[in-house]
Amino acid sequence: MVDIAVTGAAGRMGREVLSAATSRDDCAVAFAVNRSSVDELISGIVIESTDNFAELLDDHDPDVVVDFTGPESAVEYSEACAETGVAFVTGTTGFDETGIAELRHASEETAVLKASNFSRGVAALRLAVQEATAALPDADIELTETHHNAKRDAPSGTAKTLLEDIESVREDLTERVHGREGEAPRSADEIGVHARRAGDVAGVHEVLLGGKNETLSLTHRAGDRSIFAEGALDAADWLAGREAGWYDFFEVIES
Ligand code: NAD
Q1: How open is the CA angle 43-242-10, to the nearest 5 degrees?
Q2: Is 220 in the active site?
Q3: Which atom of ligand 1 is nearest to the CA of 33?
Q4: Is 205 exposed, middle or buried, given 0-12, 13-18 or 19+ CB atoms closer than 10 A?
Q5: Which of 55, 28, 60 has its CA nearest to residue 44?
Q6: What is d(CA 186, CA 191) in angstroms, rounded to the nearest whole number?
Q7: pLDDT at position 52, please?
Q8: Distance between terminal CA atoms of the chain?
Q9: Closest Cα to atom 18, ligand 1: which residue?
Q10: pTM, two decimal places
């Protein structure tokens, strides 16, 4: 049984994590916090104020903090975890280079697992995209992602991960072109990137590889957010008790 603390508990993902955690028998919720005050119980859990986070960590001593908030707060939570030796799982996206460096710094003191996407289907998509990119070395590649209308960062963290995967195979693709307008002919060294925002879409990612007389389209559609919550809890379960370091969701899947 793993004791978890949940940050961003009243957000879309925080609610999913609490719902999934309270229906699983391999984890228990030690406490949950949210930046803005929340009067309601969520999945039967009281939502505490973020101001008391360090105190709550000391009092409850959870095994893992599961974080879906924003980049600045995720870094702050990782630092608090580093100070107390609590493992840290974050699904937050939109970190800049400094934020990533700060998370990595925290991983020198505690176990940190960051994933831009906790869906097993997206993990499979990443592998398929790498294989397809290698198999079609001359293809034009375009990436399109679609998310709900309240998503803050663009392109999505998952899109950026997929772009890194593609670029690791195709070193000739040196330019990311975000949308096109006006006179905008395509060059051979670019990857087109398109971010759509509409309604309550949980997340769709499509990688299109276009060659001569054939196209290959690889698409993942999230049915709802529960897949991300379940994946994050699988990661928390796996990370609990591990030594300080930087861990990857593929290690969870392959275990
Ligand atoms: P959201 O805006 O619905 O929720 C964020 C919540 O965090 C809000 O309740 C907000 O009040 C709270 N919050 C913000 N700063 C806080 C702080 N300092 N302390 C405590 N609470 C704080 O957003 P969301 O849709 O739940 O997404 C959250 C993050 O997770 C985003 O970065 C999103 O891109 C990412 N995400 C990742 C995955 C994945 O699988 N890795 C899946 C979905 C979303």
Answers
A1: 20
A2: no
A3: 20
A4: buried
A5: 28
A6: 9
A7: 84
A8: 18
A9: 73
A10: 0.91
d(CA 159, CA 143): 7
71 within ligand 1 shell (Cβ under 6 A): no
Contact (CB, 8 A) for 34 and 18: no
Per the CB < 8 A criterion, the answer to whether 209 and 132 are in contact is yes
Structure confidence by residue, pLDDT tens digits, 76-132: 999 999 999 999 999 999 999 999 999 999 999 999 999 999 999 999 999 999 999
CA of 93 to the centre of ligand 1 (A): 8
| Separation in Å, CA 221 to CA 189, 201, 202, 218, 224 | 28, 9, 8, 10, 9
Structural contact between residues 113 and 242, judged by C-beta atoms closer than 8 angstroms = no
CA distances from 140 to 24, 65, 166, 187 (A): 44, 41, 11, 9
User: Which amino acid would we find at residue 234?
Assistant: D
- Output the six-digit token pair for 154: 């663009």
Name which of 54, 114, 48 is nearest 79 in CA terms. Answer: 54
pLDDT classification of 162: cutoffs 50, 70, 90: very high
- CB–CB of 67/232 below 8 Å? no
Residue nearest to atom 12 of ligand 1 (CA): 8
- How far apart are the C-alpha atoms of 50 and 252, rounded to whole Å? 29
- The Cα 134–Cα 131 span in angstroms is 5
Query: Is the CB of 117 within 6 Å of ligand 1?
Result: yes
How far is it, in rounded angstroms, from Cα 161 to Cα 35?
28
Report whether residue 158 contacts ligand 1, using a CB cutoff of 6 Å. no
